[in-house]
Specification:
Chain lengths: ~325, ~290, ~280
């Protein structure tokens, strides 16, 4: 139980429109990620689903029931905030138990559920500590624990990992993924980090200035971005976008080639180029080059490539992986 | 950023205070305004009649009113000058690296917590009494005639008492402002070769000027309503020497039972205070933006 | 100006500062000392500073003759009771202004502040007459309501500035957790704001304790707090300074101690957050 449907949802603060008519279906048990640059409205959209903001027009349906005018407490959703929003004056136990207490559950039931959640999240030893005595990762777990004890219809995550350091972020990413596997509950996850989106999502919703740019599985978005915005947003390093003669030759206004989809040669190829910088990561080499008539071009080569700045090379795109876009930035199939 | 539900709840929760404050201030104020147009004496409560602005003309042309207005201004301005200048000096002194700052601060702020009736009586009887007060002893020891403070210098005496009450307030707030001037700025100024005077006028004064404004405005609000100190020491006398506007209104209302005239006086006091308040609201309103 | 003062300079400044602070504090100290003198010692010329017969008789007599405890009781009841009542009204209002602000919230805050600037004499006459009609003169309820209303704008303002420092996220989390508005305020907001609420109360209590316009005008004996008790010493009846000193000491000591604890918040409260 926990499908969420948005029907032509709009949100404006005064004259400023933040969400311009979004239609979206999130299936029960799905892991959906809202991704987009800051200011695209992804957090606002999540808050509209949570009921922390009113929609200006449109409908929010949860399990096919219209919840548009229902308060956040009655929607049966749980939210994990970016700041964790733990109750600083309560112990970990108190934090996790709070929602159950508000629901008027019996003390022994509460204790049992808290214990279970704490075990799942490795928090058993910390139940009597206050949030300020915990590390960032532990606080994050408490925030998740507070959400899971309620057995909600869906979890809403608002950039939950952005306050953690890089190593912990990867670890928590895995843990949230495993949690989803274990619970099979609908999750909606907001992030500006496309790597998080790609690794975690069943379905990615790319938002651009208050509208849905594209919805699809991670690989769909990677393989078939429907426009320049998604093309440029998904993938790291970002897709090379080329205009001019090379694009016109292929019947497009702009063509896009991912850094990993071009071949390099020292003798011959489509575009002569000069290496400006080579970043050796061990597993890969990122080559930043200046291609003649094309401009800056990034390449991703597997393994170690013996390239040095100033070196002359030739770049040839793989036609099968080439993306073509028209004047309006739309994909040409 | 909230839902309709919270907005509605917000209005519901704020309304009791709004309604109470409205009843507390606006309703009586309108009543005062109404009374001020009546001939209404509590000694003769059956003989009430509308007299228009007569109470105002009689109140405004009453020599007691002119005296009270002047007394009010003299009191407010003198105490302001003494407490702000004194406060700056005290604050600068406390801002130096002195030993035992915490205890010093407790001693300096203490008078602010003393209830006005106590301050006034202690000064009048223990310090300023011409026969056995401490000041009389000091005067005699130095070979002077003791001053008969509250008889010969009544206004000055009241000013001294009230200044003593408000000096701590000014000192504490200015000290707080001074202490927020960061150490690095002080060091930068001294590295730039700023002397003590240019340091004071170019760094310190601009930094604490807002605090000074706040002190002046808040003190003014309170000083316009000084009452208890006069009530327990001089009762406005001798004659009208220490009668300020609040005391005059009190006298008309509760000693002479002249409701109409007292109300007119009250309205005049409100107008005076509002002139000051407008400035205060501007300053604090600006702060609210930040 | 040297960055580091020499030790000698520091000692010099310290001495000056202590002399100044001592002079400012002296009247209170002098009152305290005088309260332990006999009436004769109290008016002795030259004054006796420390070497006199210390006695507690003034304190005993003050209580016996003028029923100090009754006034003190009224002061305590009024300053605590009025502000507790005020707090119950002010906390929801401050919540509303901090977390559910509308277009007019700022105007409302300014208006509340403006009621504080209304001189009391402007409304003395009608309040007095209304109280007389309703038999609220010299009653704890009557003066208590007045003291509550006097401090209400200050309570709301101070609480508002403290609440503003609490992240909205946490209240939203409570809402997501199914807390009603009442539970949100009682179980989440209030415990988090305890330090702010405590210092607000402290300042409000001090102000009520020392309030001396309405207490002098609206009470006479039954509901009279210590301000009125001290004022009764303004009509001299023989030698009474030692007793006045004892009464004064009793009247100011509790609040002086409270005040010393609250001096940091005092600045913020009295300037409505304009100086922190």
């Amino acid at each position: 139980m926990g499908s969420i449907q948005l029907k032509d949802v709009r949100k404006a603060f005064g004259a400023v429109s933040i969400i311009n008519g979004i239609n979206l279906n999130i299936e029960n048990g799905e892991f959906a990620v809202f991704v987009g640059p800051s200011g695209c409205g992804k957090s606002t959209l999540l808050r509209l689903i949570a009921g922390l903001e009113d929609v200006t027009s449109g409908q929010v349906l949860i399990d096919a029931k219209d919840m548009t005018n229902v308060g956040p407490a009655q929607r049966g959703l749980a939210m994990v905030f970016q700041s964790y929003a733990l109750y600083p004056h309560m112990s970990v136990r108190g934090n996790i138990a709070f929602a159950l207490k508000m629901a008027g559950q019996k003390a022994d039931v509460i204790e049992q559920k808290v214990r279970k959640a704490a075990t799942t999240l490795n928090l058993t030893d910390y139940l009597d500590r206050k949030p300020r005595q915990l590390s960032g990762g532990q606080r994050q777990r408490v925030a998740i624990g507070r959400a899971i004890v309620r057995e909600p219809k869906a979890f809403l995550f608002d950039e939950p990992l952005s306050n953690l350091d890089a190593a912990l972020r990867v670890q928590m990413r895995v843990e949230i993924g495993e949690l989803h596997e274990a619970l099979k509950t609908t999750m909606i996850y907001v992030t500006h980090d496309q790597v998080e989106a790609m690794t975690m999502a069943d379905k990615i919703v790319v938002l651009d200035r208050g509208s849905v740019a594209q919805v699809g599985s991670p690989l769909e978005l990677y393989n078939k971005p429907n426009g320049l915005f998604v093309a440029g947003f998904i993938g790291s390093p970002t897709m090379n976008l080329i205009k001019g003669a090379s694009a016109a030759k292929r019947g497009a206004e702009t063509i896009g080639i991912r850094p990993e989809h071009a071949d390099i040669s020292t003798t011959a190829g489509e575009w002569p180029a000069t290496v400006r910088l080579a970043e050796h990561l061990g597993s890969d080499t990122f080559v930043h080059a200046e291609a003649e008539g094309v401009g800056p071009f990034t390449l991703r080569l597997e393994g170690e490539a013996p390239l040095a700045p100033g070196q002359k090379i030739f770049i040839t795109p793989r036609e099968a992986h080439l993306h073509r876009f028209d004047k309006d930035g739309k994909r040409i199939n | 950023m909230a839902t309709q539900q919270t907005a509605t709840a917000g209005r519901a929760l704020v309304s009791p205070s709004v309604i109470l404050l409205f009843i507390w201030m606006i309703v009586p104020l309108v009543m005062t305004l109404y009374f001020s147009t009546l001939r209404y004496s509590l000694l003769d409560p059956d003989n009430v009649a509308f007299v228009g602005l007569q109470n105002y003309t009689s109140f405004l042309t009453d020599p007691d009113f002119i005296a009270a207005l002047i007394n009010t201004l003299v009191l407010v301005i003198s105490v302001l000058v003494i407490s702000v200048c004194g406060g700056i000096l005290v604050a600068l002194l406390m801002d130096q690296p002195v030993f035992g700052l915490n205890i010093l601060r407790l001693m300096v702020i203490a008078p602010f917590f003393v209830m006005p009736t106590v301050s006034a009586l202690v000064w009048k009887n223990l310090l300023m009494n011409p026969d056995s007060g401490l000041f009389a002893w000091i005067a005699k020891s130095l070979g002077f005639q003791p001053i008969v403070w509250f008889t010969n210098w009544p206004m000055l005496s009241v000013i001294i008492v009230v200044s003593w009450e408000w000096l701590p307030f000014a000192s504490l707030i200015l000290l707080t402002a001074l202490q927020s001037l960061d150490e690095e700025q002080k060091e930068a100024a001294s590295l730039d070769g700023a002397g003590a005077f240019s340091y004071f006028f170019y760094i310190v004064v601009p930094h604490i000027s807002r605090a000074i404004t706040v002190v002046i405005l808040i003190e003014t609000i309170f000083l316009l309503s000084v009452f208890a100190e006069i009530y327990v020491t001089t009762s406005g006398g001798p004659g009208t020497a220490t009668t300020n506007i609040p005391f005059l209104v009190y006298k008309q209302a509760l000693l002479n039972f002249d409701v109409g005239s007292a109300s007119a006086g009250g309205i005049i006091a409100v107008i005076l205070a509002n002139i000051v308040a407008i400035f205060l609201m501007r300053i604090i309103g600006k702060n609210l933006e930040g | 100006m040297a960055i580091k003062k020499s030790a000698r300079q520091r000692i010099g400044v310290t001495i000056v500062a202590w002399v100044v602070a001592f002079l400012i504090f002296f009247p209170i100290l002098w009152t305290f000392i005088t309260s332990f003198k006999s009436e004769l010692d109290a008016i002795a010329m030259p004054p006796k500073f420390l070497f006199f017969h210390w006695t507690l008789e003034n304190y005993i007599e003050v209580e016996q003759r003028s029923n100090y405890l009754k006034f003190a009781f009224n002061s305590v009841v009024l300053s605590i009771g009025a502000n507790l009542l005020g707090l119950i009204i002010a906390v929801p209002a401050a919540w509303s202004m901090a977390f559910a602000p509308g277009k007019r919230t700022k105007d409302l805050l300014m208006w509340m502040l403006s009621t504080k600037m209304m001189p009391a004499v402007g409304v003395l006459v009608p309040i007095y007459l209304v109280f007389r009609t309703l038999h609220l003169l010299d009653s704890l309820i009557g003066i208590g309501i007045v003291l509550m209303l006097l401090n209400l704008p200050l309570l709301i303002w101070m609480l508002y500035t403290y609440f503003k420092e609490i992240p909205n996220d946490i209240l939203e989390a409570a809402r997501m957790d199914g807390a009603s508005l009442f539970n949100e305020i009682v179980y989440v907001l209030t415990p988090m704001a305890v330090p702010g609420i405590a210092s607000t109360m402290l300042l409000a209590i001090i102000l009520s304790w020392n309030e001396a316009f309405w207490t002098l005008n609206l009470t006479t004996s039954n509901a009279a707090p210590l301000t009125q008790f001290i004022a009764s010493y303004s009509a001299p009846e023989g030698f009474f300074w030692a007793k006045l000193s004892a009464a004064s000491t009793l009247a100011i000591a509790p609040i002086l101690i409270l005040g010393w604890f609250s001096q940091k918040q005092l600045v913020r409260g009295l300037t409505f957050g304009a100086v922190k």
